[in-house]
């Protein structure tokens, strides 16, 4: 199943696939560039402030990496992000085995219900984070359709989040947050009650990102 998520990531990177939720705007050309504009393909592309250099070896290499993520801290950031939609509050995270359970209060048609969804098959490829949503459950309130929850996730950051409706697959573009020369892949996930353990495979960092160009003096563009 994780192969499906990887194939979705590759399709998004190539700009050749759209989501069935209406968010797959193909906002990239597969070469580390992102379009400034509506995503129609006619807008010019801008290159990220990273230019591959002819270096003999990567700056950093590793054979494997184990990171432990604190779920309480993630809760704070995720709650802040989803509250921007005006439809989500009281986000809680629970970990067990290879699954991360998200519980949140979701408002739909003016009625608030407590919703639970399991995130599985968490993978990172080419600076895109992907996962699959399973075991969608509503506690009390009204029955909220899955598509309404998918819309909430997409609306949290429409430019970076792609939701494949009906498949439960979500892909998040992290190219603005991770350096272009980074090769980092999640191989295994192990969740405990309050921690998320991530095992990464062999990877590397080609070089440090180049500094952004200096800002033009005020009034110089007139």
Topology at a glance:
Blueprint: H1 2-13, E1 33-35, E2 45-47, E3 60-62, E4 65-70, H2 71-83, E5 88-96, E6 99-108, E7 111-125, E8 128-139, H3 146-156, E9 161-164, E10 169-173, E11 182-183, E12 186-191, E13 195-200, E14 203-205
Antiparallel strand pairs: 1-2, 3-14, 4-13, 5-6, 6-7, 7-8, 8-10, 9-10, 11-14, 12-13
Detailed description of the structure:
The protein contains 3 helices and 14 strands. It has a 6-stranded antiparallel beta sheet, with helices on both faces. The protein is of the alpha+beta class and 222 residues long. The protein is globular, with a radius of gyration of 19 Å. The protein has helices at residues 2-13, 71-83, 146-156; strands at residues 33-35, 45-47, 60-62, 65-70, 88-96, 99-108, 111-125, 128-139, 161-164, 169-173, 182-183, 186-191, 195-200, 203-205. Mean pLDDT is 78; it is low at 17-51. It has a domain at 62-205.
| Strand portion | 35-45%
> How many strands in all?
14
Large-scale geometry: globular
In whole angstroms, the N-to-C terminal distance is: 54 Å
Average pLDDT rating:
78
**Main sheet properties:** 6 strands, antiparallel
Chain oligomer state: single chain
Instruction: Supply the helix-strand structural class.
Output: alpha+beta
Low-confidence stretches: 17-51
**Helix and strand element order:** HEEEEHEEEEHEEEEEE
- Major sheet: arrangement of strands: 5-6-7-8-10-9
Number of helices: 3
Helix content: 10-25%
- Give the C-alpha Rg: 19 Å
Summarize this entry quickly.
This protein is an alpha+beta fold and 222 residues long. It has helices at residues 2-13, 71-83, 146-156; strands at 33-35, 45-47, 60-62, 65-70, 88-96, 99-108, 111-125, 128-139, 161-164, 169-173, 182-183, 186-191, 195-200, 203-205.
């Amino acid at each position: 199943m994780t192969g499906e998520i990887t194939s979705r990531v590759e399709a998004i990177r190539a700009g050749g696939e759209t989501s069935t939720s209406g968010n797959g705007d193909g906002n990239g050309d597969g070469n580390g560039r992102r379009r400034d504009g509506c995503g129609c393909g006619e807008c010019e592309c801008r290159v990220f402030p990273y230019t591959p250099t002819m270096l003999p070896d990567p700056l950093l290499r590793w054979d494997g990496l184990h990171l432990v993520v604190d779920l309480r801290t993630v809760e704070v950031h995720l709650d802040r992000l989803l509250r921007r939609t005006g439809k989500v509050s009281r986000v809680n995270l629970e970990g067990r085995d290879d699954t991360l359970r998200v519980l949140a209060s979701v408002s739909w048609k003016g009625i608030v219900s407590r919703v639970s969804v399991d995130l599985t098959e968490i993978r990172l490829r080419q600076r895109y984070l992907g996962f699959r949503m399973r075991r969608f459950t509503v506690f009390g309130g009204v029955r909220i359709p899955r598509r309404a929850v998918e819309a909430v996730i997409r609306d949290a950051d429409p430019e970076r989040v792609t939701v494949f409706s009906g498949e439960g697959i979500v892909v998040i573009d992290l190219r603005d947050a991770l350096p272009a020369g980074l090769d980092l892949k999640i191989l295994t996930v192990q969740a405990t009650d309050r921690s998320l353990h991530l095992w990464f495979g062999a990877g590397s960092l080609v070089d440090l990102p180049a500094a952004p160009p200096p800002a033009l003096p005020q009034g110089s563009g007139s």
